[in-house]
Amino acid sequence: xxxxxxxxxxxxxxxxxxxxxxxxxxxxxxxxxxxxxxxxxxxxxxxxxxxxxxxxxxxxxxxxxxxxxxxxxxxxxxxxxxxxxxxxxxxxxxxxxxxxxxxxxxxxxxxxxxxxxxxxxxxxxxxxxxxxxxxxxxxxxxx
Length: 143
Known about the structure:
Low-confidence stretches: none
């Protein structure tokens, strides 16, 4: 079965959605963070603490790139670097209190935006939308 799909239109929609959502979510957020900063902060929050290699594997970037981003986030006061108690060679990355507070603000803004966007969409449509997104992600992960 041939599927009719305008890939350029889908790309445009996905790009515009990501761009608009990120701009609204980070509006009035200080310090100003990039999407990569935000993905990293969320990853660290989900794992409690992690090492640079964990973050690099998650983001699909080099250790040097992660180190540079961690440096910036440390300068912003959003993360803390600590040496491992058991192996002093290992550096552990954790969220600071400021980092936790920033993510709480972002979570609240995300909730407000999604409540606004989905308020006129019924539960059946939301369930179908979620199901389609999950199927796409599953196909991409298993490709």
